[in-house]
Design brief:
Layout lengths: L8 H31 L6 H29 L7 H34 L4 H4 L2 H26 L21 H15 L4 H31 L8 H23 L2 H18 L1
GO molecular function: G protein-coupled receptor activity; olfactory receptor activity
InterPro entries: GPCR_Rhodpsn, GPCR_Rhodpsn_7TM, Olfact_rcpt, Olfactory_GPCR
Subcellular location: Cell membrane
Length: 274
C-alpha cells in the first residue's frame, strides 16, 4: 500500500520539520510528567496515577504513526506492507481506545474529589485505582480487537493508494453525564471561592476531553469534503498529534503540585551536578 500527505517536496520537508517538533515536544512533555509522578512521593495519589498512565499513552499513541510518517516525508518510497498496516492499526486503536477509557474513568474520579472530598481516599483506594487502570487497558484492547476484526473483512482489491490517516470516533456519553452531575454539585457550593476551587479541579480534564472531541470532529467533517488538497490529510494527522502534545501543558499549567515537584527535581538535579 502507498500513501502520502502531499506530492510537493517542499511542503513535505516543511511538514517533516513541523511534525518532528511536535513529536519531540510530545515525548518531552509526557516523559517529564511520568518522571515527576514516579519520583515525587507526594504525587503517589489516584489522580496522578491516572495522569501518569495517560501521559504514557499519549507519547505511545504518537509513536505509533509519527515515525513512519516522518520517514515517508523524507523519502520518495512511501509504502507499507499489509501486515505492517494492520499492526499499526491495531496499536493505534488499542492505545487510542485506552486513552478514551482513561478519560472516562478520570471523570468519576473528579466527581468524587468534588462531591465527597472527605471520603476521596477511602473511595479511590489502591484496589479501586488498580481496577480502573486495568479496566481501561482491557477496554482499549477489546476495542482494538473488534476494530481489527472488522477491518480485515473489507475488500482490499483495486487501487493500492490509501490516504495515510487514522480516525477514531468514540462515545463520550459517560463523561458528559459525569460532568452534568459535577456542575450541578459545584453550583450548589455556597461560596464563590469554593465554586472556583471545584471548577479548577476538573477544568484540566474537561479541557483535554474537549480538545480530543474537537480535533476528532473537525478532522471527520473536513475529510467529508471533495477537496483534493493534502491539507485534509494534515488535519487528520493532527487529530492524533495535537492532543498528546497539549495534554501535558493543560494538566501542568495550573497544577501547583506538578510545579512544586518540578522545582524539587530541578533543585535535586542541580545539586547532584554540583
Amino acid at each position: 500500500m502507498t500513501g502520502g500527505i502531499s506530492q510537493s517536496t517542499e511542503l513535505q520537508h516543511f511538514l517533516f520539520l513541523v511534525f518532528l517538533l511536535v513529536y519531540g515536544t510530545t515525548w518531552l512533555g509526557n516523559l517529564t510528567i511520568i518522571i515527576t509522578v514516579i519520583f515525587d512521593s507526594h504525587l503517589h495519589t489516584p489522580m496522578y496515577l491516572l495522569l501518569a498512565n495517560l501521559a504514557f499513552l499519549d507519547f505511545s499513541e504518537s509513536s505509533v504513526t509519527a515515525p513512519k510518517m516522518l520517514k515517508d516525508l523524507l523519502y520518495q518510497r512511501k509504502t507499507i506492507s499489509f501486515n505492517g498496516c494492520l499492526t499499526q492499526m491495531f496499536f493505534f486503536h488499542f492505545i487510542g481506545g485506552t486513552v478514551v477509557f482513561f478519560l472516562v474513568v478520570m471523570a468519576p474520579d473528579r466527581y468524587v474529589a468534588i462531591y465527597k472530598p472527605l471520603h476521596y481516599l477511602s473511595i479511590m483506594n489502591r484496589s479501586m485505582c488498580m481496577g480502573l487502570v486495568a479496566g481501561a487497558w482491557l477496554g482499549g484492547f477489546v476495542h482494538s480487537i473488534v476494530q481489527l476484526a472488522l477491518i480485515i473483512q473489507l475488500p482490499f482489491c483495486g487501487p493500492n493508494t490509501l490516504d495515510s490517516l487514522f480516525l477514531a470516533l468514540n462515545c463520550f456519553v459517560f463523561i458528559i453525564v459525569s460532568y452534568v452531575q459535577i456542575f450541578k454539585t459545584v453550583l450548589r457550593i455556597p461560596t464563590e471561592q469554593g465554586r472556583h476551587k471545584a471548577f479548577s479541579t476538573c477544568l484540566p480534564h474537561l479541557t483535554v476531553v474537549s480538545l480530543l472531541i474537537c480535533t476528532g470532529s473537525f478532522a471527520y467533517l473536513k475529510l467529508t469534503s471533495s477537496s483534493e488538497s493534502g491539507l485534509d490529510l494534515v488535519v487528520g494527522v493532527l487529530y492524533s498529534l495535537v492532543p498528546p502534545v497539549m495534554n501535558p501543558i493543560i494538566y501542568s499549567m495550573r497544577n501547583k503540585d506538578i510545579k512544586a515537584a518540578w522545582k524539587k527535581l530541578i533543585v535535586w538535579w542541580l545539586f547532584t551536578k554540583s
